[in-house]
Design a protein that fits this description.
Layout: H1 18-37, H2 43-65, H3 70-97, H4 110-118, H5 121-129, H6 135-167, H7 170-184, H8 194-197
Length: about 200
């Protein structure tokens, strides 16, 4: 590691993560669903929208925090997963109390819904599609997307934990960078150390 590189890794590219894009769609659909199908004044509206927002925002904040704290990154990613799991229960509750079906593997539309949720068409079509879906269809689409997102977040958390075990936290990286600096000396803009230029 050279002085030019520094000890702070370049991170924060959360917008490229598929899980972030999925949670962004979940937020947009939930905002529409809550204001379209829930009664005005129902506290569930704010709860669902906030849970969806928390799922999205904590991925972003965790990614940004990873530059200075692996521990914070893992914590915030876990918060994102927990928020989405809370939102999942809200959708399941809605279907149950309204006497609507939650689509399982035996439902005739389950496979097609799951395939659409995993496709690249989702990003392009969800916004125009949402107004054509019933509350049952929209709930099941969001449930499918939330399950997809929480699966990806579990894998992301496992990877973050593995990286923490391998690389340590920022304090360990700072100590390592300092010891390396003392060992080889400062690096010039040409990439040569003061020792190699002599």
């Amino acid at each position: 590691m050279t002085q030019a590189q520094g000890f702070l890794p370049l991170r924060g590219g959360y917008r490229k993560l598929r899980v972030y894009r999925v949670t962004e769609i979940v937020y947009d659909l939930t905002y529409y669903f809550a204001h379209r199908y829930l009664v005005k004044g129902d506290r569930t509206i704010d709860q669902m929208v906030q849970a969806a927002r928390s799922g999205k925002q904590n991925i972003a904040e965790g990614s940004k925090a990873s530059m200075t704290s692996r521990e914070t990154e893992i914590k915030l990613t876990n918060v994102a997963k927990a928020s989405l799991e809370e939102l999942l229960v809200d959708y399941e509750d809605y279907l149950r109390v309204h006497g609507l079906a939650q689509w399982g593997e035996d439902h005739p539309r389950y496979s097609r819904m799951r395939k659409f949720a995993q496709s690249n068409d989702l990003q392009r079509k969800y916004d125009e599609l949402k107004e054509k879906l019933s509350d049952e269809e929209l709930s099941n689409l969001c449930i499918t997307l939330i399950n997809q997102a929480t699966y990806m977040l579990r894998r992301l958390i496992a990877r973050q934990e593995e990286q923490f075990l391998q690389e340590g936290g920022i304090r360990e990286q700072m100590t390592k960078a300092r010891l390396e600096y003392r060992r080889i000396g400062p690096t010039s803009p040409t990439g040569l150390t003061s020792q190699t230029k002599q």
